[in-house]
UniProtKB/TrEMBL annotation:
<dbReference type="InterPro" id="IPR036322">
    <property type="entry name" value="WD40_repeat_dom_sf"/>
</dbReference>
<dbReference type="GO" id="GO:0071013">
    <property type="term" value="C:catalytic step 2 spliceosome"/>
</dbReference>
<dbReference type="Pfam" id="PF00400">
    <property type="entry name" value="WD40"/>
</dbReference>
<comment type="similarity">
    <text>Belongs to the WD repeat PRL1/PRL2 family.</text>
</comment>
<dbReference type="InterPro" id="IPR045241">
    <property type="entry name" value="Prp46/PLRG1-like"/>
</dbReference>
<comment type="function">
    <text>Involved in pre-mRNA splicing as component of the spliceosome. Component of the PRP19-CDC5L complex that forms an integral part of the spliceosome and is required for activating pre-mRNA splicing. As a component of the minor spliceosome, involved in the splicing of U12-type introns in pre-mRNAs.</text>
</comment>
<feature type="repeat" description="WD">
    <location>
        <begin position="408"/>
        <end position="448"/>
    </location>
</feature>
<protein>
    <recommendedName>
        <fullName>Pleiotropic regulator 1</fullName>
    </recommendedName>
</protein>
<feature type="repeat" description="WD">
    <location>
        <begin position="199"/>
        <end position="240"/>
    </location>
</feature>
<keyword id="KW-0677">Repeat</keyword>
<comment type="subunit">
    <text>Identified in the spliceosome C complex. Component of the PRP19-CDC5L splicing complex composed of a core complex comprising a homotetramer of PRPF19, CDC5L, PLRG1 and BCAS2, and at least three less stably associated proteins CTNNBL1, CWC15 and HSPA8. Interacts (via its WD40 repeat domain) directly with CDC5L (via its C-terminal); the interaction is required for mRNA splicing but not for spliceosome assembly. Component of the minor spliceosome, which splices U12-type introns. Within this complex, interacts with CRIPT. Also interacts directly in the complex with BCAS2 and PRPF19.</text>
</comment>
<dbReference type="GO" id="GO:0000974">
    <property type="term" value="C:Prp19 complex"/>
</dbReference>
<feature type="repeat" description="WD">
    <location>
        <begin position="325"/>
        <end position="366"/>
    </location>
</feature>
<dbReference type="InterPro" id="IPR019775">
    <property type="entry name" value="WD40_repeat_CS"/>
</dbReference>
<dbReference type="GO" id="GO:0071011">
    <property type="term" value="C:precatalytic spliceosome"/>
</dbReference>
<feature type="repeat" description="WD">
    <location>
        <begin position="241"/>
        <end position="282"/>
    </location>
</feature>
<dbReference type="InterPro" id="IPR020472">
    <property type="entry name" value="WD40_PAC1"/>
</dbReference>
Length: 513
């Protein structure tokens, strides 16, 4: 008769048997398989040193050393991907890896040799040994410099590690040296901003706002299809302009002529003469709603972006469409212009940002870091940098190639608008009515504001569609879903003692990518 045991007993017995079977090998290291170790090291080499595998190894250096580097840091036999053959190829155009900063491109230096993998292991990248140690120290191209010369973003380097040049017997070998993870520097103190005026008058959502160059008045566009001009000092209504047959989505005042430009969901782009308060030009061409517009600061060119996935460049005077910037695969939500290259920047619902060549009408760079729609882009007035806003993050970038600087995390909402002033105060306004204020340099979030909706509005009508600083940068204007314009100013009574920066360097760290 078979004795019946519970499942628990059977499982326990099975475990005990397994344990007894393997107890002799317990905690012993697994024997190393040479073949798999080679594969592992090859993968590791490619991953960690992939960006420098194409760097030149100088002929005279190789001769002095007697061929490729023979030392193996791992104590295993060498394996080479291209033994017995020398790969030579010509570099045309820009030479990405000079043998040192300031070294001219000559017939000798424009031929690069592919180093063998064994040479790449020890990264035998050195200046000619004939140079003095001092000169070598001063001019040797560090890997960080080569990244910059090649235009590769800093995010390519593994975080927390830096490649340092180590000196041994007059030759340079690169060794990985661990560095402390970078902590955020102490942010600059900014006084908090407070609400001091609420302007009502529109009968629909206020979708866009712009301040005129003389700082006397500002203009708003709304879902009630009107454009209203307000006195900046008093907040009183000066003028209403009608002509759009759908929501007005963008307004801008020209600094070069007495013109106001507007665009809307009716596919129309209008030029208003403010001496007669009449439309004098239409710019026809967009196939769907026009979501935003900007004027070039130095030439008479208007750029608009639309739900038809394009941005268009218009000659202000002749109304001709100079270029159609196509490439985005979804609605283009925002466009910005600047005098320096790249002269046009667009953000789109296809999650990408594109930097455009104005002359050729083609994309220079596409930035694909955002995971969600990019509804806002803002250029810093002094630095050669810009920021983009998306529900996943606010990201800062460096011109001209769009190199990533840092993330500003914490505004977990659909960010509709960004504004920045010369003091380095970045403002992000979101669909849920929240507004965050950041220190531009460090990415520190020093204030969060959620203003109450005007009486009679639903709480769900809390939303910021646009925000802008006035020309003096002492006032911040927001265009909101409760049909109001809210005006903020810095709190004059605040000091660093009354409103200290609650800053923890060991917690707040600059994120990469």
């Amino acid at each position: 008769e078979v004795q019946k045991h519970s499942v628990h007993t059977l499982v326990f017995r099975s475990l005990k048997r397994t344990h007894d079977m393997f107890v002799a090998d317990n905690a012993k290291p697994i024997p190393l398989d040479d073949e798999s170790h080679k594969v592992k090291m090859a993968v590791k080499l490619r991953t960690e040193y992939g960006s420098v595998l194409h760097m030149p190894t100088l002929k005279e250096n190789m001769r002095e050393k007697g061929g490729p580097a023979t030392g193996d840091p791992y104590g295993h036999k060498q394996y080479s991907g291209n033994q017995g053959q020398e790969l030579e190829y010509m570099i045309t155009g820009t030479h990405p890896y000079p043998s040192g900063p300031g070294v001219a491109l000559t017939a000798d230096t424009k031929i690069q040799r592919m180093p063998s993998e064994s040479a790449a292991q020890s990264l035998a990248v050195a200046l000619p040994a004939s140079q003095t140690r001092l000169d070598a120290n001063r001019t040797a191209a560090g890997v960080g410099e080569i990244y910059r010369h090649a235009g590769i973003s800093e995010r390519s380097q593994p975080p927390g590690m830096s490649v340092a040049m180590m000196e041994a017997g007059g030759n340079k070998n690169s060794a990985l040296v661990a560095k402390k993870a970078p902590t955020m520097p102490k942010p600059q103190w900014h006084p908090p901003w407070k609400l001091y005026r609420v302007i009502s008058g529109h009968l629909g959502w206020v979708r866009c706002i712009a301040v005129e160059p003389g700082n006397q008045w500002f203009v708003t566009g709304s879902a009630d299809r009107t454009i209203k001009i307000w006195d900046l000092a008093s907040g009183k209504l000066k003028l209403s302009l009608t002509g759009h047959i759908s929501t007005v989505r963008g307004v801008i005042v020209s600094a070069r002529s007495p013109y106001l430009f507007s665009c809307g969901e009716d596919k129309q782009v209008k030029c208003w003469d403010l001496e007669y308060n009449k439309v004098i030009r239409h710019y026809h061409g967009h196939l769907s709603a026009v979501y935003g517009l900007d004027l070039h600061p130095t030439i008479d060119v208007l750029v608009t972006c639309s739900r038809d996935s394009t941005a268009r460049i218009w000659d202000v005077r002749t109304k001709a469409s100079v270029h159609t910037l196509s490439g985005h695969t979804n609605a283009v939500a925002t466009v910005k212009c600047q005098a320096a290259e790249p002269q046009i920047i667009t953000g789109s619902h296809d999650t990408t940002i594109r930097l455009w060549d104005l002359v050729a009408g083609k994309t220079r760079v596409t930035l694909t870091n955002h995971k969600k729609s990019v509804r806002a882009v803002i250029l810093h007035p002094r630095h050669y940098t810009f920021a983009s806003g998306s529900p996943d993050n606010i990201k800062q970038w460096k011109f001209p190639d769009g190199n990533f600087i840092q993330n500003l995390s914490g505004h977990n909402a659909i960010i509709n608008t960004l504004a920045v002033n010369s003091d380095g105060v970045l403002v992000s306004g979101a669909d849920n009515g929240t507004m965050h204020l950041w220190d531009w340099r460090t990415g520190y979030n020093f204030q969060r504001v959620h203003a109450a909706v005007q009486p009679g509005s639903l709480d769900s009508e809390s939303g910021i569609f646009a925000c802008v600083f006035d020309q003096s940068e002492s006032r911040l204007l927001t265009a909101e879903a409760d049909k109001t314009i809210k005006v903020y100013k810095e709190d004059d009574t605040a000091t660093e003692e009354t409103h200290p920066v609650s800053w923890k360097p060991e917690i707040i760290k600059r994120k990469r990518f």
